[in-house]
Amino acid sequence: MTMTTPAYMDPKKIHSLTLHCAATPEGRDVKAATISQWDIAKFGQVSYHIVVELDGSAVRTLADDRRGAHVGGKNTGNIGICYVGGVDAQNKKPKDTRTEAQKATLRRLVAEYRQRYPGIVVRGHRDWPGVAKACPSFDVASAL
Ligand SMILES: [Zn+2]
Fold first, then answer.
1. Which residue spans adopt a coiled-coil conformation according to this UniProt entry (predicted)?
2. What pLDDT score does 101 carry?
3. 105, 19 Cβ separation under 8 angstroms
4. What's the gap in Å between 81 CA and the centre of ligand 1?
5. Residue 120 domain-assigned?
6. What is the domain range of residue 109?
7. Residue 68 CB: number of other CB atoms within 10 A?
8. Ligand 1 centroid – CA 5 distance (Å)
9. Distance, CA 18 to ligand 1 centroid (Å)?
């Protein structure tokens, strides 16, 4: 029996990769499983495809052929990667809190996605038109 794959689940239709921060305070070792729990509570599903923990571990939270929930109205064909952190230790201001291990993992993941999905556009959450957020608290274009 042949099944028709909905367009949003077709890996060939993946066109974007969006980087996020979890908006957790600097140094707080929040695990990927916790972030997924928060997202399920808030959005009814896991938001991101991969979460990068403080030690640089890349934890797969959603398969690439599943639609995430990380950019309002723009989740089809859009992979979401989130690093733990993004706010200062006082939990007040956006801050680039990426550890060296997280930076290395994010670079590696972006390179892998560029290879796997040629032409994929890599952006920070705040780089999407109409988004008024600090996320991911660093400039993706100059950092990667
Ligand atoms: Zn975001």
1. none
2. 98
3. no
4. 9
5. yes
6. 14-132
7. 25
8. 28
9. 8
CA of 123 relative to ligand 1 center, distance in Å: 10
Query: Cα of 37 to ligand 1 centre, how many Å?
Result: 16
- In this structure, what token pair is assigned to residue 45? 């599903």
Q: What CATH number did the domain enclosing 123 receive?
A: 3.40.80.10
* pLDDT tens by residue, the chain, 144 residues: 455 555 555 666 899 999 999 999 999 999 999 999 999 999 999 999 999 999 999 999 999 999 999 999 999 999 999 999 999 999 999 999 999 999 999 999 999 999 999 999 999 999 999 999 999 999 999 987
- CA–chain centroid gap for 49, Å, is 7
Cβ atoms within 10 Å, residue 80: 24
Please give the Cα distance from 86 to 122 (Å, whole number): 18
134 CA to centre of ligand 1 in angstroms: 8
How many Å lie between the centroid of ligand 1 and the Cα of residue 126? 7
144 located within any domain: no
